[in-house]
Amino acid sequence: MFRIDKDGMVRSALVEARRLTALERGDMPVVNGIVVHQTGGSTAQSTFNSYRNSTIGAHFLIEKDGKIYQTASLLKRANHVGLLKSRCLERHACAPAELKRLQSTTLRKRSTMEHGKVFPDRFPSNRDSIGVELVGEYNRNPDFGKIRGADEFVYVAVTGEQNAALRWLVGELRRTLKVAAEEVYRHPQVSYKTTTEAATATW
């Protein structure tokens, strides 16, 4: 079990603090979900390096050997989700008028429409979700351009050590922050991302 201190940092021997305040985008008074990602770099250090020159990042980073780093306060938002998918479209549950509006607009405008909704009518977003990155680079997909719908890149498999750490971390976050099991997602489930990102992650 862990505790969260007054600064939103986890206190546990299993989590090393590497807080980068440049990733924090304002207060996050409530957490409704957890989004699991994979990085584009092959090491934790490459991710730390990219975070220093970016406003995009997650709250946690899990190295291939299972080591967990906390990179942002749990009391602060982080830009990790990107354009938000429509929950009713993904669940095939839109009202006819909304379905028509969603189908006749761009992905960016769809995302804006979703951000105007109150949870749980939308997926958890940057403003109310914890981001967890798993170190795991991607490779070019040899089927890209040959098979219709094939992604340009394919992510490497998550390691067993990463999955063990992820199961522990997600369990502790869910228990402490009272996040429902069904509100934990892989990044492509809630945003327009490469479908293999975190596909082999388990929690």
Describe the structure.
The two termini are 16 Å apart. The model has no long low-confidence stretch (mean pLDDT 94). The radius of gyration is 17 Å and the shape is globular. The chain has a 6-stranded mixed β-sheet. The protein folds into 2 domains: 145 residues, Peptidoglycan recognition protein-like (Lysozyme-like, 3-Layer(aba) Sandwich); 38 residues, no CATH class. The protein has 203 residues and is of the alpha/beta class. Helix content is 25%, strand content 20%.
Overall outline: globular
Q: Which fold name is given in CATH as the topology of the largest domain?
A: Lysozyme-like
Rg value: 17 Å
Q: Give the name of the CATH architecture of the largest domain.
A: 3-Layer(aba) Sandwich
Top CATH class of the largest domain: Alpha Beta
Sequence of strands across the biggest β-sheet = 3-7-6-9-5-12
Provide the residue-averaged pLDDT.
94
Order of helices and strands: EEEEEHEEEHHHEEEHEH
Helical proportion, percent range? 25-40%
Strand content: 15-25%
Report the end-to-end length measured between terminal Cα atoms. Answer: 16 Å
| Superfamily (CATH H level) name of the largest domain | Peptidoglycan recognition protein-like
| Total number of beta strands | 12
Largest sheet: 6 strands, mixed
User: What's the number of helices?
Assistant: 6
